[in-house]
TrEMBL record:
Source species taxonomy: Bacteria, Pseudomonadati, Pseudomonadota, Alphaproteobacteria, Hyphomicrobiales
Protein name stated in the entry: DUF2934 domain-containing protein
InterPro entries (alphabetical): DUF2934 (IPR021327)
Keywords of this entry: Plasmid
């Protein structure tokens, strides 16, 4: 992944982790959830082009 995507995933994963009460040992779960959310958001974007996949 590129740095901008990693930063967006990290920020969203942190938000999700905070909202869940900051549970220990679940960082990978929140990272994957954030990745999936951002991927789904990107796929529904009207500005998305095949080159941005």
């Amino acid at each position: 992944m590129n740095r901008r995507i990693d930063e967006a995933v990290a920020a969203r994963a942190y938000e999700l982790w905070e909202q869940a009460g900051k549970p220990e040992g679940r960082d990978e779960d929140f990272w994957r959830l954030a990745e999936q959310e951002l991927l789904n958001e990107d796929q529904s974007s009207p500005r998305r082009t095949p080159d941005t996949l």
